[in-house]
Amino acid sequence: MVLYSTLLALRIIRGHTLDVIICRENSSILARVPSIEGLQICDDKGISSLDHFAILCELNITKPPQQRKSLSFRKFKEINIENIEMDINNSLLQNERNTSVEHVVASYDSMLRTVLDRHAPEQSKVITLRPNTEWYTDELRFAKRERRKAERQIRRTKLEVHKQIYKEHCSRTSKLMFKCKTECYSNTISEVGHDHKNLLKLTNGLMENTNDVVLPSHLSEIELSNRFGNFFL
């Protein structure tokens, strides 16, 4: 195992407390020797933490792909109510009367699905799951653009004046980001008011609580339903 001596030297000379990067000497993950730079680090309130340095380490790994999800939907709002009522009535008149309850239920289900597919066919699309960034404003986008510009300048010149400009941009951007998030969430909660149902829905969204139902592996829905029924019996 290799412990890079530059970290210990900086700790002895400057008096900083740093985390260390420990890896094997012939590691294929590590692309280059870690470096230490005095980057501007701020907390969630935009307060600068000038007593910490950043350890930069380049790794031979790829960025994971964005998660994608397939959705199925129907355009119910485009359905003409009069036309679908007429089709349902005509289908009911043509529907034969069966003595078996199972046959009647299956016939009605098949008929309603056929009518629904005619007026609002099921469609599917693949979407990319992205984080909720309603708080991301044009002002914040411009501030981050200016911060990246200042970062490229300090990396190119290494001048103290450009370093100070970059720190000011970092502090300003962090404070603005915290302000945008606070105002966005505060306004959203105020609009909900005393509606506990929507407030719970909003809270679950902020906490990333999903309502996806995870069912046991099964060959068909009927087979799974029978398994549940047998279990409770």
General description of the model:
Keywords: Coiled coil. Residues 133-160 form a coiled coil. This protein has a two-stranded antiparallel sheet with strand order 1-2. Strands 3-4 form a two-stranded antiparallel ribbon. It has a two-stranded antiparallel sheet with strand order 5-6. The chain has helices at 5-14, 81-94, 101-119, 138-157, 160-192, 196-206, 221-232; strands at residues 2-3, 22-23, 35-37, 54-56, 68-73, 123-128. It has seven helices and six strands, in the order E-H-E-E-E-E-H-H-E-H-H-H-H. Helix 4 (138-157) runs antiparallel to helix 5 (160-192). The model is unreliable at 1-14 (pLDDT under 50). With 233 residues, it is mainly alpha-helical.
Topology readout:
Layout lengths: L1 E2 L1 H10 L7 E2 L11 E3 L16 E3 L11 E6 L7 H14 L6 H19 L3 E6 L9 H20 L2 H33 L3 H11 L14 H12 L1
Antiparallel strand pairs: 1-2, 3-4, 5-6
Helix pairs in contact: 2-3, 4-5
Keywords: Coiled coil
> What does the radius of gyration come to?
30 Å
The largest sheet is: 2 strands, antiparallel
User: Which regions contain 5 or more consecutive residues with pLDDT less than 50?
Assistant: 1-14
Q: What is the overall silhouette?
A: elongated
Helical amount among residues, as a percent range? Answer: 40-55%
- Binned strand content: 5-15%
Please report the distance between the alpha carbons of the first and last residues. 60 Å
Write down the oligomeric state: single chain
Count of individual beta strands: 6
Number of helices: 7
Coiled coil: 133-160
Keywords: Coiled coil
